[in-house]
Design brief:
The complex is a heterodimer. Chain A is mostly beta strands. Chain A has no helices and eleven strands. Helix content of chain A is 0%, strand content 50%. Chain B is 0% helix and 52% strand. The chains are: A mainly beta, B mainly beta.
Chain lengths: 115, 117
């Protein structure tokens, strides 16, 4: 089954404690992306990657890092989380060749609370 | 840069009634338009998309949307809703960039459809 998986699904942490949210896809997609969803703001892109070792900033990258060492994995790293990073996070992937026409496939989401 | 406006944050409707969820976009270049649905505690899944051609697009679960270039709109419609349609609906646009691989999705703020018995 084609899918995007994220772990953990729920996480409560404290300010300043480094954390990583993992994302993995089994569709051999080149393009992967992280979004955060906040009430009234929809989804905003944090970072994206067009292939292994190729990453770039989205609209709200401050306070986040990513890496793309393998095609299937795209972890999101919060080096020093702060309460304003409390949000619902989604990982997504799609083929690169289709450009903007291709469907993005989303993971189930990770709800992060930073105290 | 592109933007998407979903004018209604919540739309309550009775079961079997018709519904329209509104979406307007702005972009200086040609666009691709999408509607995604998010059921409670789940990720987003694609309902339908407009790439080119016929302006009336049919999607899953009986939904359809009409692309109107002159009004820069892409409203979502369903003639008769079910309780199971209760979800949040997001309109999104993909536009711009000479490198089409870079095309990012810009999402609206979402519309919560509440279907009541």
């Amino acid at each position: 089954e084609a899918q995007v998986t994220q772990n953990p699904r729920y996480l409560i942490t404290v300010t300043g404690k480094k954390l990583t949210v993992t994302c993995s896809q089994n569709m051999n997609h080149e393009y992967m992306s992280w979004y955060r969803q906040d009430p009234g703001l929809g989804l905003r892109q944090i970072y994206y990657s067009m292939n292994v070792e190729v990453t770039d900033k989205g609209d709200v990258p401050e306070g986040y890092k990513v890496s793309r060492k393998e095609k299937r994995n795209f972890p999101l790293i919060l080096e020093s989380p702060s309460p304003n990073q409390t949000s619902l996070y989604f990982c997504a992937s799609r083929r690169l060749a289709g450009g903007g026409t291709d469907t993005q496939y989303f993971g189930p989401g990770t709800r992060l609370t930073v105290l | 840069a592109q933007s998407v406006t979903q004018l209604d944050s919540q739309v309550p409707v009775f079961e079997e009634a018709p519904v329209e969820l509104r979406c307007n976009y702005s972009s200086s270049v040609s666009v691709y338009l999408f509607w995604y649905v998010q059921y409670p505690n789940q990720g987003l899944q694609l309902l339908l998309k407009y790439l080119s051609g016929s302006t009336l697009v049919k999607g899953i679960n009986g939904f359809e949307a009409e692309f109107n270039k002159s009004q820069t709109s892409f409203h979502l419609r369903k003639p008769s809703v079910h309780i199971s349609d209760t979800a949040e609906y997001f309109c999104a646009v993909s536009a711009g960039g000479s490198d089409t691989g870079r095309r990012a999705l810009t999402f609206g703020s979402g519309t919560r459809l509440q279907v009541q018995p």
